[in-house]
Known about the structure:
By secondary structure, the chain is α/β, with parallel strands linked by helices.
Amino acid sequence: MFPLRRNRRLRTTEAMRALVRETTISPNDFIVPLFVVEGKGVKDEIASMPGYYRLSLDNLQKEVKELWKLGLKSVLLFVKVDDKLKDNSGTEALNPNGLMQRSIKAVKDAVPGMVVMTDVALDPFSSFGHDGIVGGGKIVNDDTSAVLAEMALSHANAGADVVAPSDMMDGRIFEMRTLLEDEGHHDIGIMSYSAKYASAFYGPFRDALDSAPVDLKDVPKDKKTYQMDYANREEAVKETLMDIDEGADIVMVKPGLCYLDIVRDIKNAVNVPVAVYQVSGEYAMIKAAAERGWLDHDAVVLEQTFAIKRAGADLIASYFAKDVVKLIS
Ligand code: PBG
């Protein structure tokens, strides 16, 4: 009762606030997404993601060395492949000498201790820009899961530590886990994008990889038959529990900021690490507003990162990871 209780007593100085702070951020909280392209000396800025780049393998190696020095110990790899290599069956995704497979080796050569996570989905390799095989106007679930399991195996063979299926097919975690176990890859982690919503915030990412769904007859124009409806909340818990049953080691909510209610629900429902992906559109919004002088970039980045962590994220995949680590050090 006032004045016995004055809540402002614990807010008087920064030292006092730090003493009673409930949430902390450290470099260990982050997964750094990286975009890889063919070539040499390439550092190609993504138009809708100012300050973020597509890197060739040599620059990828430089980047991971810098990340490691900053205390960032985990990367999530995505590759941009030439249109000529795209088809409807994920052929290039399984190429043992493909760009992803070479990227994994390049990172491990540069920084052996780095935890290498890899994107498992067909969209960067799909002539239709879908995460799975297209047939009869649909994304064919079970055939896709079989290819994704092969893709995960190929990444494991190349040296990945964790495979990260971002596709939202049903049963793909089980397929993947079974194949990895059968092939002796007992220690490969699976980070499942378990509650991934059909979101308009992925736009800049699709620019980065040139992976947007194509506008063709008999090809779905969006990903709403596999990614989740953003009106749903309980379904996210169901999806996530199923993926854990199927063998996921880490689960994920994606996007971040608009989905923090989901993050908390899942954090309360599971006992595996929960990752949150603060996606490309979230990055772009902050960059655009800051460029115009409408928002304080660093302050907003920190506030959003803390909000994601406070909501229940154990891990955050973030394009701001380097910024945040510099800001908190
Ligand atoms: C596709 C994939 C997407 C992202 C990660 N993997 C886009 C999509 O589902 O269309 C988005 C990441 C981001 O926007 O930062 N498998």
